[in-house]
């Protein structure tokens, strides 16, 4: 069955967070190695969300967590910033470049079904990022809608419910096998796209699908072509 909607992981799957964050870091903090700083900032992502998932703190938008993680990363690197410069750098996640195949691939896919992000990013963050990167979403779904963070099942189920679709009519697309496992457990279809440069040279994780996903494609353009032809792998 062709999905009636495709929902996407964004950071890493649709946009290149590593180079985008490193670019802003290099401008704001020329004294640090920008890719190392970007990786260290991103490494705090899951632990920060886990406190929310585990009930250790109420739900807060990822924008706030990014700012807190930035403060921790600055301290780890022994770097200091003025408050205005720090506030500007905290929004680097709104200015990430799309992978080259993403805008046109999404536009083609949108002629066949609804498309939306299902991200841990807030509605505000995802909207600004879509405008920056040229991502033609129909709407914005994800953490702010569910007030929870992936891979909690309510995030995927809330996205389907917001579209008034059964979970089985929606495909989650991601470059991360763990995201797809959680979506599949919640009853959604799953589509895998590898992003072997997400973490830079030497990446070892998520280079290939490790589950019986419904669709495996080279990139988003290939995904759209496969959907058009009805080809899963």
TrEMBL record:
Instruction: Check the record and name the Gene3D superfamilies matching this protein.
Output: HAD superfamily/HAD-like, Putative phosphatase, domain 2
A family per Pfam: Hydrolase
Q: Which UniProt keywords apply?
A: Hydrolase
Name the chemical reaction catalysed here. an (S)-2-haloacid + H2O = a (2R)-2-hydroxycarboxylate + a halide anion + H(+)
What EC number(s) does this enzyme carry? Answer: 3.8.1.2
Q: Which InterPro entries match?
A: 2-HAD, HAD-like_sf, HAD-SF_hydro_IA, HAD_sf, PGP-like_dom2, S-2-haloacid_dehalogenase
Q: Name one GO molecular function term.
A: (S)-2-haloacid dehalogenase activity
Family, similarity comment = Belongs to the HAD-like hydrolase superfamily. S-2-haloalkanoic acid dehalogenase family.
Give the matching PANTHER family. HALOACID DEHALOGENASE, TYPE II (AFU_ORTHOLOGUE AFUA_2G07750)-RELATED, HYDROLASE, HALOACID DELAHOGENASE-RELATED
Protein name, please? (S)-2-haloacid dehalogenase
- According to its UniProt entry, this protein's organism is Rubrimonas cliftonensis
């Amino acid at each position: 069955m062709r999905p009636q909607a495709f929902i996407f992981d964004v950071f890493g799957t649709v946009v290149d967070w590593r180079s985008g964050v490193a670019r802003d870091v290099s401008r704001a903090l020329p004294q640090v190695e920008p890719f190392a700083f970007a990786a260290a900032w991103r490494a705090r992502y899951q632990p920060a969300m886990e406190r929310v998932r585990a009930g250790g703190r109420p739900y807060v938008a990822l924008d706030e967590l990014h700012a807190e993680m930035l403060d921790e990363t600055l301290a780890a690197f022994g770097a200091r910033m003025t408050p205005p410069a720090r506030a500007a750098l905290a929004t680097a996640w709104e200015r990430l470049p799309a992978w080259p195949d993403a805008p046109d691939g999404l536009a083609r896919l949108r002629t066949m079904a609804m498309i939306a992000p299902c991200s841990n990013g807030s509605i505000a963050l995802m909207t600004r990022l879509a405008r920056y990167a040229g991502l033609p979403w129909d709407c914005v779904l994800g953490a702010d809608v569910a007030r929870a963070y992936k891979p909690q099942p309510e995030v995927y189920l809330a996205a389907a419910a917001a579209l008034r679709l059964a979970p089985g009519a929606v495909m989650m697309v991601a470059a991360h096998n763990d995201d797809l496992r959680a979506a599949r457990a919640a009853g959604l279809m799953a589509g895998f796209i590898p992003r072997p440069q997400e973490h830079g040279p030497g990446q070892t994780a998520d280079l290939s699908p490790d589950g019986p996903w419904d669709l495996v494609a080279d990139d988003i353009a290939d995904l759209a072509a496969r959907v058009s032809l009805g080809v899963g792998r």
